[in-house]
Amino acid sequence: AAPVLEFVRPAPETDTELAIRLAEYLEPLPMQGATVTDMARDVVPSKAYRNNPSAWRAAVLRAKDRGLATGLIQTFGPDGSQRFIKGTATPSQAYALDRAEAADREAGAQ
Fold first, then answer.
1. What pLDDT does residue 5 have?
2. Quick check: 10 pLDDT over 70?
């Protein structure tokens, strides 16, 4: 019998995975930072978003928020600035926070 091929949609990156990519993009920009518009334009969209610019921008916004929450990204400039630079957290620290939050959710659901 012929092998069966299954086609599945690519799974979108998690917000943390995309936040790591945003932080990598921001690393060489410590003096000027970047806006969400810069990040959405300059970071290559993952396959799940290649043909959907508005969904890509929404994903970048979620990842930016996740990056701020985990310390991968930080605001830059005057209070309330809309510019961002790479934060001090490492990817492994961000993933550890993800695991801790997932464990807390599981414990709360019991």
1. 74
2. no
Say how far residue 67 (Cα) sits from the centre of its chain. 6
d(CA 88, CA 10): 30
What are φ and ψ of residue 3, in 5° steps? -65, 145
Q: What is the pLDDT of residue 79?
A: 65
The length of the chain in residues reads: 110
Distance in angstroms (rounded) separating the CA atoms of residues 50 and 84: 24
Positive or negative, the CA dihedral 2, 10, 43, 37 is: positive
Residue 76 confidence (pLDDT) above 90? no
Which residue type does 15 have? D
> Whole-prediction pTM value?
0.84
Q: Name the residue with tokens 């830059």.
A: 76
Burial class of residue 62 (count of CB atoms within 10 Å of its CB; 0-12, 13-18, 19+): middle
